[in-house]
């Protein structure tokens, strides 16, 4: 389950010092029809696996159960297992995981010019995808259901796998390490300044698609040389 750096069309292009481009996924490259009631959807999947749910499951689901440090991702299966445990119900890790994974089957729509934007970025250097998503496998399934080619990305990092959520610097450092660059060498393309824009605290750059839409990125990347 990624707006301050902006070059207006009439402005002189600003030199980009990034040596790798990182895209956000949800809200940037794709839009999704989210599961409207995740607690209910997960409850259905748990019940289908023979798990007896507490009468106040909805309340248990919304309560915090894991004391995670700031910036850390709490995998949703871990949260679900902890919520059940708080009501005296034990489930295996595998049961919690499969229930969560199967509860999220969103409808995917690829954003206009998403593929072209990724292809244009690849012409200048390595490209990655960094997504805040607490649901295992959802990023990969989303890409497969979109018109994007997962092979277009040199690396794909979800917060549920790396352990950190944007804007925590460790999330950006995780993907930068996989791309073979420093976090300060990243230019992050996204739709949320509160998360994707955190790259500026690492010394990198942020492009907000609300100000520089995806269809405009190929021209921008063509004007600005990305150092390999």
Automatic annotation (TrEMBL):
The keyword Hydrolase applies. One of its GO terms (molecular function) is hydrolase activity. Signal peptide: none annotated. Keywords: Hydrolase. Gene3D superfamilies: HAD superfamily/HAD-like (3.40.50.1000). It comes from the Archaea. The keyword Hydrolase applies. Belongs to the HAD-like hydrolase superfamily. This is HAD family hydrolase. The lineage of its organism: Archaea, Methanobacteriati, Methanobacteriota, Stenosarchaea group, Halobacteria.
């Amino acid at each position: 389950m990624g707006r301050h750096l902006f070059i207006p069309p009439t402005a002189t292009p600003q030199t980009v010092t990034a040596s790798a481009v990182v895209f956000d996924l949800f809200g940037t490259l794709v839009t999704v029809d989210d599961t409207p009631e995740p607690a209910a959807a997960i409850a259905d999947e748990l019940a289908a696996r023979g798990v007896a749910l507490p009468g106040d499951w909805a309340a248990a689901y919304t309560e915090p159960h894991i004391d995670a440090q700031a910036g850390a991702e709490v995998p949703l299966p871990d949260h679900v297992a902890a919520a059940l445990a708080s009501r005296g119900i034990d489930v295996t890790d595998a049961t919690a995981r499969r229930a969560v994974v199967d509860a999220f089957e969103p409808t995917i729509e690829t954003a206009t010019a998403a593929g072209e934007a990724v292809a244009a970025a690849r012409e200048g250097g390595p490209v990655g995808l960094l997504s805040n998503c607490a649901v295992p496998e959802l990023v990969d399934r989303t890409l497969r259901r979109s018109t994007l080619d997962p092979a277009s990305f040199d690396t794909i990092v979800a917060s549920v796998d790396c352990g950190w959520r944007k804007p925590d610097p460790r999330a950006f450092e995780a993907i930068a390490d996989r791309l073979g660059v420093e976090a300060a060498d990243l230019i992050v393309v996204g739709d949320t300044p509160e998360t994707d824009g955190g790259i500026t605290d690492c010394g990198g750059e942020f492009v907000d698609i609300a100000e520089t839409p995806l269809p405009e990125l190929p021209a921008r990347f063509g004007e600005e040389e990305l150092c390999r």
